Amino acid sequence: MHSERRDYTDQITPEMGSEEVTIAGWVHEIRDLGGIIFMLVRDREGIAQVTLFKKTTPPRLVSAVKSLSRESVVTVRGRVKPEKKAPGGYEIVPDEIQLLSKAASPLPMDTTGKVDADLETRLDSRFIDLRRPEVHAIFRIRHHVLQSVRSFLTSEGFIEVTTPKVVATATEGGTALFPITYFEREAFLNQSPQLFKQMLMSAGFDRVFEIGPIFRAEEHDTRKHLNEVTSIDIEASFADHNDVMKILERLITHVYTEVCRDAEKSLNRLKVTPEISEPPFERLKYAEAIEIAREGGEELVWGEDLTTAAETIIGEVIHETTKANHYFIIDWPTETKPFYAMPHENEPEISKAFDLMHRNIEISSGAQRIHNAEQLTERIKEQGLEPESFESYLKPFKYGIPPHAGWGLGLERLLMTLLNIENIRNTVLFPRDRKRLSP
Ligand code: ATP
Ligand code: MG
Fold it and tell me: Where are the domains of the chain?
């Protein structure tokens, strides 16, 4: 088998005539109509129909197929015949069928899409759930998103780096950390590569990006929160918040455009057409955003983070006026954002921090950072934190660090908004949430 040629189901065309092909995959369905048996075989590219005629097909093949269970793994060698009613417009008349791995029955869940399963059941049997073409398609697109992010940032002069996920102290002084045992010491899973990205600015890397896991120990149970997230992070030197917002909006447009170009088949499987937003995206001041929320009936006090209800109202109003899904919320209250966000020089109660929104979902947060050690120490104190516990964070700022800015973009939030997916858990192979730790 392994030395032989293997054809993916989408490489076979009706025009191939009686050419011999070999497909390998899972038994999707068997329909025995008496004189004729259809066996649908599924591989990662699609589904092919294998047709057996009781009169002409060798009896050993007929009985082999009759004894097959759904989701068993087989190879089929046979000849191509045009057949308008079959997927791809062809069928395969088999000369040889080989069983490679038998699937037990009943299956933990249905793969044909005929029986609806709830998300919990699906995630419990994720290896089977992932076999479903429309689920598979999400991860094809996820691959294309990652590819296009890498190519875009590389073309913009960014270098890909990877930084530790096991750390000694909190990045943002938050409580939302998972403690772990590191030999005889306590350590944590990192909530953000922030500190490392900034150290690399001091180290002269100038422009870096990282795509890696971040861990948040917050007890959310919402459609948009996970406890392990894949974060796309950038940091750029000699740049301010406006510079990195421009990079972010161009990245979003680039990803949408590339996915539409390269993942057409997967998009069709999901029946979605991503709506591409063209830069420049709307820049809405925080003060204007809470005003819109108020007019929509959601009372917010200046300095509060936006509630989900407020985000929904704002997203709708912006969409009505701009016809676009993406917009920035800028000029956040300094007290609302992490201590490392740079306050405006002439108006220090607001900071050079921004969120990128898609309708009512935040997909990215970023800012120009404070690069002055004294100012940073002050801000740490003002936020009620102790500068002593940020010693290793503060050190690089004392020995020459350029002005810099950056952002973090959640890959799963990007995917769920790109594909109009309601629950973020659908965008991760094996999601980690408040309740789920396996598979
Ligand atoms: P939220 O307010 O939506 O909980 P956040 O403001 O706490 O998110 P940041 O610390 O700003 O999140 O992280 C930057 C980006 O990382 C977010 O915009 C989001 O895309 C992603 N992200 C952060 N936390 C989560 C999470 N728990 N689940 C999914 N994505 C997340
Ligand atoms: Mg944020």
Answer: 9-101, 133-281+324-427
> What confidence tens digit (pLDDT) does each residue in 388-424 have?
888 888 999 999 999 999 999 999 999 999 999 999 9
For ligand 2, the distance from its centroid to the CA atom of residue 420, given in whole angstroms, is 20
Question: Is residue 377 within 8 Å of residue 336, measured between CB atoms?
Answer: no
Report whether residue 425 contacts ligand 1, using a CB cutoff of 6 Å.
Answer: no
Nearest alpha carbon, ligand 1 atom 23: 410
In terms of Cβ atoms closer than 10 Å to its own Cβ (0-12, 13-18, 19+), residue 328 is buried
Is ligand 1 within 6 A of the CB of residue 226? yes
State which fold the 133-281+324-427 domain adopts.
Answer: BirA Bifunctional Protein; domain 2 (3.30.930)
* pTM for the whole structure: 0.95
Which residue type, as a one-letter code, is found at position 62? V
**Segment-wise mean pLDDT, segments of 10 residues, the chain, 439 residues:** 77 92 97 96 97 95 96 97 96 97 94 85 96 96 98 98 90 78 95 94 98 95 97 98 98 98 97 97 98 96 94 98 97 96 97 98 98 96 89 91 98 98 98 96
Looking at ligand 1, which residue's alpha carbon is closest to its atom 10? 365
Assess whether the C-beta atom of 57 lies below 6 angstroms from ligand 1.
Answer: no
- Does 341 contact ligand 1 (Cβ within 6 A)? no
H/E segment holding residue 237: strand 228-237
Cβ neighbours of 115 (radius 10 Å): 8
Q: Which CATH class is domain 9-101?
A: mainly beta
The rounded distance, in Å, linking the Cα atoms of 431 and 380 is: 33
